[in-house]
Structures are given as C-alpha cells and as structure tokens.
Amino acid sequence: MATTSSASRVAYRLNRFGRAPRITKSLRKDRTTHLPIPHVPALTTREFAPNRLKDHYHTTLADDLMYMTYTHEPSGVGKKPAPPSTPEDTVRLEKIQIHTFIKESLQNKSALLSPIMMLRALTGETTKGGGQHAVEGIQLVKGRKAVGGWIRPGVPVGAKVDLRGQSMYDFLNTLTEFVLPRLRDFNGIVLPPKSSSSTTPSTVSGVVSFGLPPEAMVFFPQLEVNVDAYPMLPGIHIHFVTNAKGKGAQDKARALVSGFQVPFVRR
Questions:
Q1: What contacts 187, CB < 8 A, 6 or more positions away?
Q2: In what helix (H) or strand (E) does residue 29 lie, and over which residues does it extend?
C-alpha cells in the first residue's frame, strides 16, 4: 500500500513539472524582428568581478586628488568664494573615447570593416550590450562639412567607440599593463610648454588625448592572438574625458590619468 502511494506521488510530481505551462496571454511581437516581446523588463548585466583600477581610485587616488588639485583663492569684497574641495567634485574619469580615421574609406567604404572589427575586438562593445540602453557600440564617424574638396558631409570617414564603467577600466588596464610598456619610442604623453596659455579651449575642457601608431596595435592581447584576421590595423586616438571644467581642468585631468600609471613627459 505504501509502495503504491509513493509511486503515485512520484508520478504526480513528474506530471506536474514535466509539462509546459499553459499559455494564458499571447506575447506581442516586434515589428522589425518579428520576435516575441517578453512581459518582464530587459535584463541588465552587472559587474561580475572586482575591478582593480576602480577600487584603486575610490580607496587611494580620489583622496590624493582631492588634496593635490585643491586651489585656495581668498575671497575679497564682492568676490564669490571658491567652492570647497569635497569628494563629490573631485576629478574622476567619466569615459574613454577611441576613434580612428580611415582616409581610404572616402573611395571605398569597405575599408571601414577592418577598423570596426578592430574596435569591436579591443572593447567588446555592442549596441545596447548587456541590456544597457546607453551603450551605443561601435559608431561611424561621418564628415560634418566639406574639407578641401575631399571630405563631404555625411560620408563615413572613420569609427569610434565610447567606453564607460567596467569596460572603460578594463581597456585602461590593458593599455597600461600590456601596450605602453612595450612601446620603445613612447616615453609619455607630451606636455605643453610652461609658457602656454591656461585659458585656451583645450586647457579648460578636462580632456587628455594622445595617439597610438598602427605599429602599436599588435601589442594589444585581443589583436595579437589573431593579427592575420585584420587586413589593416590603423592607429587610434584615445581621449580620457573627465568631469573637470574651467581653469586648471586639464591639469586635474592629467593628475588623474597619471594616477592610473599613464606617463607624461615634457620636451
């Protein structure tokens, strides 16, 4: 009798969980892909491993920068005092932009395929990757106005990608650990002369930029393992975009970038 009851319970469990649930409401379909749209919101991935550079900024670098970049300006009659130096207004890295210019794409648009593949391998960025709607992936750079009769408005001339969050720190880690130490001719980002003006648009933007030649691209581990897959490896321009604005913004940005082991040199 006990054996019969146990067998019936097993059969009940198999029948209960072995069948697919009954569809009570049909799903709407996307007009473009004709795939069903789930009722739940889009899934969003999160950081799946500790990030060394991000932890270094929050535990060490942010406090040092708050003291290093503080400038005391005494308030006078009718003059607004300088804002206090707090963790909220400490200079921080907001994004890293990588772009490349392909002159051959003006005559042949297929020349952009190799740079797009290169940026995709370097960054791993895709449009709305990981459920993040702010992630735009690899974008085409198009001409805005005619230049010398050979660049026309709307014609693709290159590609770019914006890195934020964990992918930004991952690229920065690869750059400082694997690429820059292997460049023999790279002593650091060249600083402007001391006599240069501190009020130019570039000095108040808080952006640090430099370029890598095509010969340096093979030092990236993502490209080094399969260099033959890329017919052409162009050079890239790297822009470290910070939240620093106003007078002395670029000096604050340089202090931040140097804290991530990116060297600078003055000629």
A1: 263, 265
A2: strand 28-29
